Amino acid sequence: MNPSVASPLTREMAHEMDLADPLAGLRDAFAIDDGSALYMDGNSFGRPPACTAALVSQALDTWRTDLIIAWRRWIHLPREIGDAIARSVVQANPGEVIVGDATSVNLYKAAAAALGAQSGRRTIVTSDDNFPTDMYVLQSLAAQRSLELKVLHADPVQGLDPAVLKAGIDSDTALVCLSHVAYRSGALLDMAQVTRAVHEAGALILWDVSHSAGAVEVPLESSGADLAVGCTYKYLNGGPGAPSFVYVRQSQQARLRQPIWGWFGHRDQFAMSDSFEPAEGIESFLVGIPAILSTLAIEPGVALIAEAGVDRLQAKGRRMTQLLIALADERLAPHGFTVASPRDARRRGSHITLRHPRAKDIVRALIADRVVPDFRPPDMLRLAPAPMYTRHVDAWDAMDRVRQCAARLNL
Questions:
Q1: Catalytic: 408?
Q2: Catalytic site residue 233?
């Protein structure tokens, strides 16, 4: 860069972007303290909506006053919030999404159900940029059922090449399980293209949309996806340990039986039958009693996503991550940082990753300086400006702090 030419990447420019941001007002719907840290970890754990505390408090009052009678409404929450997620967060139909259990448990249920419906096929396919717990679940299922787990190599920046996937699946492939957005690099897969290739091989596809739901469009319906699981405490802002959701395409529900049979997945749970009969539809993917307080806490974030529109959230996420990349190129490259995320915004989720040999030390120093990014071994620093509440000036300020930190460390 020519030092005699002033950079257009000024804080004033970021402020102008905020003034033009149609979603700027959503920030006021979140509980953000004055002088709070610059939060760049929205893809790991979201901020609380301002109304969540009152909603949970009201549920505690209902518990105190109504006791077991409160279950007359609470018992319907997994389906009600699942339908809200289907309407506003992912592209799905009512009756295809339900909330309950941790993401790992739902992934196990969905993958096992898919494998049970693929008699004679002996291979599970995934990629080496899939989230670790997904790999563990698939390893477990492969070991239990004496199946082969084939792990395809994904480019660490650009993600899985569809050509590599197509070459890695065949008539023995039962299930392909992939992350829609790679948790390290932020690489975004083309859901329709991948699903089409998997179906051409006669296999089923299971998507982990934990790093995309609430930040980018998730075209489950139009892509033909069979199954998906997603987290609610990242971009959905459901709070610590909020239960996840599972999606099962309507046309697949009758043939897929998940392996953990519990009374909430029973056709008539209060008949207290000695034998299990699965409920019809998406309710068959429930197991036990839903965690009511944490399930209720998902509602505000889903409502805010509905208000914003996923298309507008994705557009803002692209603008902010593009700003981060431009600032990294201009101000951080001289300090040894490299961008480890796709530069094409159409191929990227709502976070970027920087590489540096001393990334761990840098993240520690940033947290001490009231900037909260994320570290991923061995040398990756992730920055995730959540579109609903992160401002462009927050992104600019965070990158400026990274630059200052690098200078202090003599990098």
A1: no
A2: yes
